[in-house]
Amino acid sequence: MRAVLLTDLLLKNLDKQSSIPMQKQMYDTIRFAVLDHTLISGQKLPSSRALAADLEVSRITVSLAYDRLIAENYLVTRAGNGTYVAPTLKQPLSAAPGNVHTQHSMQLSRRGSQLTSLPGGMGNTTGAFVPGVADSQAFPFHIWKRLVARYLSKGNLALSGYADHGGLRQLREAIAGYLKISRSVNCDPGQIIITTGTHQAVDLCARLLADAGDTAIVENPCHWAFPTVFSASGLNVAGGEVNEQGLDLANSDVPPRTKIVVVSPSHQYPTGVVMPLSRRLELLQSARAQNLWVLEDDYDSEFRYDGAPLPSLQGLDTDGRVIYIGTFSKAMFAGIRMGFLVVPNHLSEAFAKASTKLFRPGALHLQAALADFIHEGHFAQHIRRMRTEYSSRQDLLRSSLEKSLGDMVSLSSARAGLHVFAECSSLVNYQSMINESKREGIFLGTPCFVKNIPSLENRCFVLGFGAVPLERIEAGVHSLSTAMSRSLY
């Protein structure tokens, strides 16, 4: 390409009316021309004086653009002989062979491909009947805003950095005090590790308690997060038997190299089963006999409507093998992304160090605000208020379902949590019902099965009522009834 043609290239691409500086436009145009081999290696360019005259711009503008391109090795100067295009790749980056190579050779890893194919959560956070979502409309954001603002100032610059030692001490103290009273958890603040939610908590446990190729047992069916996170960490996932008393570890297959078992004893997800004391003691005994770590997922234990919340499994543990997982997403609002682990004393230092090294936790001003939210009684007050509200919603949902659907569905019996588990009768085409429900604006949760259960799979679904105001429940059930009536065999 003759030097004079650079002027034509620039005149075609430069826009003197643009808000982008002329120097930046020149730099971008020449840079792309070099990478694309429109300007070839060794090509001599016009002098800054000549180019400025041709473009009718300041010579300083051209010189600054040239200087930057020279500094970044797109152009070179030869003393007394002008400016040239620097040596570049033989093939331009946009050439076809490079594109083919990139598209067909640069692929996800096996682990990445597996992760993208595993079950994932629903994208919706509002509407009937999205499961697992609290009512953010009822949350006292005016209080939360005041508490957060308390720590957003230059007087609290210490909170603008990273957390260490497992999280902010004030929050760990607040959580420890709350858990001792409400959940009978035996812990001190040093055992608590603040996380960004259950997913990060499980990931941390997988990394520290098991090696790639080891096995984790999850309840079957279970929440989709557990097999997804464990698989992403290189663990094999096996399904434990769940019956009317919850996980039956004693009668489940435990593969060799099993290191972890996950259980939700206070309100099994999704079936809603509440594990009685006898089964809890039996589970701990089986875990001791097989030397397993037990992860207790206590995701919505605050919401029990026919009695006081049941004591935690961790409070019964005498071996230091139960790790308690808690979250504020159900009790407060989903997007808070704040949770915690309670680990045995002998693991606390390792978990704190690993959390800091892997995740570099921050958001200390939010942790400080949450500590005040608990200490000042706002958290307990919100729980009491929402317990009454959610109880009314569940009662109305159950009565509406029984009235509208009758024998087409059977419901779980537990009066707890933020969802109801339902099983279709054999008269209903399951997949058609799911599709028709979406057309009606109804979103149903589908349980995750690690291994087939013919009596349940393609028959059951989850109805969340946390994000559904009381006055909209009957209309939602009516829409679901319409969808099911279209799905009968």
From TrEMBL:
GO terms for molecular function: DNA binding; DNA-binding transcription factor activity; pyridoxal phosphate binding; transaminase activity. Keywords: Aminotransferase, DNA-binding, Pyridoxal phosphate, Transcription, Transcription regulation, Transferase. Pfam families: Aminotran_1_2, GntR. It comes from the Bacteria. Residues 20-88 form the HTH gntR-type domain. InterPro entries: Aminotransferase_I/II_large, HTH_trans_reg/aminotransferase, PyrdxlP-dep_Trfase, PyrdxlP-dep_Trfase_major, Tscrpt_reg_HTH_GntR, WH-like_DNA-bd_sf, WH_DNA-bd_sf. In the C-terminal section; belongs to the class-I pyridoxal-phosphate-dependent aminotransferase family. This is PLP-dependent aminotransferase family protein. It comes from Pseudomonas marvdashtae.
